[in-house]
């Protein structure tokens, strides 16, 4: 029987702390959430390896290090209302639930949403609500949000997600694909959006975020 607790400690010590993650609240959340509860049964023994884990065809649980770095960048507080875009199996939502006041997480795949809801509620993460919908549309009915966290790489950030930020709110996303993709924070101030780039991050793409191809005459 695998010692998941030891594996979890090792993940935090060797994969997260070594990549400049120093936020106590982020480290605490990664220590406390059982990653093995959010991977398919056949992959449980691999729950703590330092790579992305497929949780459904074409959908992945993000590697721990980039996820922790993005969440540190998000500077989440207990008063924040967060929209997570791309629930997947619910692991990032579970981490977010430890950091934020409340979390709405939107997922396009109904089966994944159901599974994530079960996993989250069985672990007592009762400040998270998983809803189904197109990821690029966000979830306007609960807006505005203090933070929109995009759980995967996107080609560009849709205007709809930025519209759902409150004034002073921020959006954290990895923009671009492959090794050239960059972690960005977009901040909304008096309706205007400013953008800062922080580090390169190779994470798996989310579905539904391709650029709209423009006609060339």
CATH homologous superfamily identity: Vaccinia Virus protein VP39
* Total strand segments: 9
The helix/strand series, from N terminus to C terminus, equals HHEEHEHEHEEHEEE
- Class inferred from helices and paired strands: alpha/beta
**Helix fraction?**
25-40%
Our count of domains comes out at: 1
Largest sheet: 7 strands, mixed
- How far the N terminus sits from the C terminus, by CA atoms, comes to 63 Å
Integer average pLDDT: 94
Instruction: Kindly provide the radius of gyration, computed on alpha-carbon positions and rounded to a whole number of angstroms.
Output: 16 Å
Q: What overall form do the CA principal axes indicate?
A: globular
CATH architecture: 3-Layer(aba) Sandwich
Q: For the record, what CATH class applies?
A: Alpha Beta
Structural account:
The chain is an alpha/beta fold and 217 residues long. The chain has one domain: Vaccinia Virus protein VP39 (Rossmann fold), CATH 3.40.50.150. The chain has six helices and nine strands. A seven-stranded mixed beta sheet has the order 5-4-3-6-7-8-9. The longest helix has 13 residues, at 4-16. The termini are far apart.
Features:
217 residues; alpha/beta; Rossmann fold; seven-stranded mixed beta sheet; two-stranded antiparallel sheet; 9 strands; 28% strand; globular
């Amino acid at each position: 029987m695998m010692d998941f607790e030891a594996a979890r400690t090792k993940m935090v010590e060797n994969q997260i702390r070594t990549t400049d993650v120093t936020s106590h609240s982020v480290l605490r959340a990664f220590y406390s959430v059982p990653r093995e509860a959010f991977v398919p049964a056949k992959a449980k023994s691999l729950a703590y390896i330092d790579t992305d884990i497929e949780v459904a065809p074409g959908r992945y649980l993000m590697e721990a290090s980039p996820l922790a770095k993005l969440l540190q960048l998000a500077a989440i507080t207990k008063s924040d209302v967060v929209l997570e875009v791309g629930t997947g199996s619910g692991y990032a939502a579970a981490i977010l639930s430890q950091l934020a006041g409340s979390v709405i997480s939107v997922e396009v795949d109904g089966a994944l949403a159901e599974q994530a809801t079960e996993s989250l509620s069985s672990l007592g993460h009762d400040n998270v609500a998983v809803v189904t919908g197109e990821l690029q549309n966000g979830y306007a009915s609960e807006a505005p949000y203090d933070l929109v966290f995009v759980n995967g790489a996107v080609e560009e950030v849709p205007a709809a997600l930025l519209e759902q930020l409150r004034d002073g709110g921020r959006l954290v996303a990895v923009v671009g694909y492959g090794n050239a993709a960059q972690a960005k924070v977009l901040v909304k101030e008096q309706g205007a959006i400013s953008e800062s780039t922080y580090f390169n991050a190779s994470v798996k793409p989310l579905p539904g975020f391709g650029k709209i191809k423009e006609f060339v005459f």
